[in-house]
Automatic annotation (TrEMBL):
Pfam short name (any one): Abhydrolase_1
Record protein name field: Alpha/beta hydrolase
Gene3D superfamilies cross-referenced by the UniProt entry: alpha/beta hydrolase
GO molecular function annotation: hydrolase activity
Cross-referenced InterPro entries: AB_hydrolase_1, AB_hydrolase_fold, Carboxylesterase_BioH
PANTHER family: HYDROLASE ALPHA/BETA FOLD FAMILY, PIMELOYL-[ACYL-CARRIER PROTEIN] METHYL ESTER ESTERASE
Keywords: Hydrolase
Organism expressing this protein natively: Catellatospora citrea
Domain AB hydrolase-1: 26-169
Length: 251
């Protein structure tokens, strides 16, 4: 395991690094997840093996630090990730991001084009979502205090044992703040940022996941949209063979 200081306060991000040939592949997890748990198997798939690979945990998640003074917005996650990649000597990487990690990867590519040569995003949230009048039990119904007191435990119960296995490693405040940051999105939106990028971009969607909104608009902007058969939101877990081949095909 390697690490790097990524904030002025000294917070560290950590990652598992697999030695191999350049260019580097960087794997970024979703909300409440951890990159080694979600990606370790596919990095050894014949279609992807042999490349230097960084399986990195965002601040507040997995084995990375849990700073209370970090905002966990999408731009802040992207900037912290950039600092980690700088420390790792990464340039012109192929960045693979799942769910929230896909949104972070899109912003990373926009803010630091020197770090990202190719982008693969799996089921990323591209658009803002309303948080007003949330239903009981919703993350958005909580303050930081009530989320720590009971909301986090309720969330772990609601998401089920698979997701909870990695979410329980996360800082509750990181889960809450990151969820709010995802819902608020960015200006311009993550979708708008993705469509204006000029690097090779691939959007992966499970055929059992949510329908891709405005897939034709993405294609018109030069984004390669690929459906992964027999997969829901966690495409790399549900169909690792098709996921690996799709990532390799983005090169």
């Amino acid at each position: 395991m390697r690490d790097a200081v990524v904030t002025t306060a000294g917070s560290r991000m950590r990652w598992v690094e697999i030695a191999g040939a350049e260019p580097t592949r960087v794997y970024v997890h979703g909300l409440g997840a951890s990159s080694p748990a979600y990606y370790a198997a596919v990095t050894h798939h014949p279609a992807l093996a042999g490349r230097r690979s960084l399986l990195i945990d965002l601040l507040g998640f997995g084995v990375s630090d849990r700073p209370a003074d970090f905002g966990h917005t999408l731009p802040e996650h992207a900037d912290a990730l950039a600092a980690a990649l700088d420390a790792a000597g990464v340039r012109d990487a192929e960045v693979i991001g799942h769910s929230m990690g896909g949104a972070v990867a899109i912003l990373l590519a926009d803010r630091r084009p020197d770090l990202v040569a190719r982008l693969v995003v799996a089921e990323p949230p591209l658009d803002p979502k309303p948080t007003e009048n949330p239903p009981p039990g919703s993350v958005f119904a909580h303050t930081p205090e009530t989320f720590r007191e009971r909301g986090f435990a309720e969330t772990l119960e609601r998401v089920g044992p698979f997701w909870a296995a990695t979410m329980r490693l996360a800082d509750p405040l990181a889960v809450l703040r990151s969820a709010v940051g995802l819902a608020h999105n960015t200006t311009p939106t993550v979708r708008e940022t993705l469509t204006k990028l000029s690097l090779p971009r691939t959007f992966l969607a499970g055929d059992r996941g949510e329908e891709v909104r405005d897939a034709e608009g993405l294609r018109a902007a030069g984004v390669r949209v690929v459906t992964i058969a027999d997969a829901g939101h966690n495409v790399m877990i549900d169909n690792p063979d098709a996921f690996a081949r799709a990532v390799a095909g983005a090169a």
